[in-house]
Every structure is written in C-alpha cells, then in structure tokens.
C-alpha cells in the first residue's frame, strides 16, 4: 500500500481534532472566564531510505534520504490570555485583572476558576453560580453570617469584603472584613479543565500559591465586572477555514492514492 494514503489518514485525524477544539472555542464565546484552546501538530517518524555519508578527498558528502509518514498531535494548549472585562454594576461580580484564579471547593477537591459571578447562599457562604464555596487567602470558606442583615457591601481591588450588619442592639455596625484570595501557579497551561469553568492543579502546573490580590504578581479584583471569554470569533473562523481546507487536501491525497492503486490493479487486464 502507498505511504501517502496513511499520511493522508493521519492528517485527516489531526485536522478533525483541530475542528473539535475550534468548535468548543466557538461554543464558549460567551462563557465567563473561558480560556480558548489551540492545537499544534508535529511530523511523525520518517522512514530512512538511505543514510547520510561523509565526503572524502575526491567526493562530497551525501545527505540522508527520508520519506515522512504523516503528522501527529504535538499539543492541545490552553491559551491563558486576559479576557476583556464587561461592566455589570453588580458588587458580587468580580473580574480578575491580571494573573491568578479564585480558589473554590468542588466535591471536597480544591479547584480554580476565572468566572467571578459570585453569590451568597442562605447561610452567608460566598459561592459560585454552581454552588462551590469560595476560599479566602487562608484556604478557608468565606462566610459573612446572616445575609439578610447585610448592607453596604463592597469589595476592593485587594479582595477585602466590607459590609454593615445588625448588632445586638439592632443598630448597624461594621462587620468583620473578609478577604478573597488569588491562587497563582508556576505554569497556568498545566491546569486540567474539569468542566463548570473549573480547573484542578496537576504536576505540570505546580501547587497553588494563595496570595492577596494585587501583590506578588497576583491580579487585582475589579468589582462590578466580569471577565469575558478570550475567544476571538474572527480568528476562530479563519482557523476553521484553514482546518477545513487542510482536511480537504488530505482527503484528496487518499483519493489520488486510491486512483494510483486502481491503475496498478488494471495493469493485469
């Protein structure tokens, strides 16, 4: 069988994976805090027909002769660039301007997210839209007590939550401030997506370091905003056309190889 046929098959598989990633990017164009994916390829092992040889006094050297056997996936990267901040005016909507993630708890496992649409439940716990508890800089859940007695809530860029609450005499007093923490990693690209806008740390990402927002390279918190997806539709549509044409070209390789095999079969007639 022709090597070109197998090369075409490997190309089709890879471009299909690229189209899958592009489709996921486009599907999440309006997902808060979403980070787009990117596919890269690398060539597969090459078959050496003849090796290289050194020259001598009467003859020059000869370069190796090799035939490539197709392509394979090199990586599927998470592009961790800053998304634009959309103003919402809601105090508990928090956008991260810079590096870092909010630390939350998902099924007892520390997880991380850039989606900052937060809420208070009926017990006063700060939670995400999916109900995950949000942690402070000491990796403890944030609780403000009875949410019905809270007024004048505000969150500054350092993650400090200030509010007024009812005292024992019924008068409004300043409540104990809480502090939202920011988790940073040595390698953000090494985080593993687990759905619901969440990531978990891996050996590639390193362990999370909890920091006060705006310090030691951690991003600042911008209350009243949400970070939009960093997907650029014009770029995705361009990449989709490239992937479509690449897939089409590889199918043409298979078609041409099949025609050549058909000619070989017809030689017997």
UniProtKB/TrEMBL annotation:
GO biological process, one term: bacterial-type flagellum-dependent swarming motility
Residue span(s) of domain Flagellar hook protein FlgE/F/G-like D1: 96-163
Keywords: Bacterial flagellum, Cell projection, Cilium, Flagellum
InterPro entries: Flag_bb_rod_N, Flagellar_basal_body_rod_CS, Flagellar_FlgE/F/G, Flg_bb/hook_C_dom, FlgE/F/G-like, LlgE_F_G-like_D1
Primary location group: other
Family of this protein: Belongs to the flagella basal body rod proteins family.
Name of the molecule in the record: Flagellar hook protein FlgE
High-level lineage: Bacteria, Bacillati, Bacillota, Bacilli, Bacillales
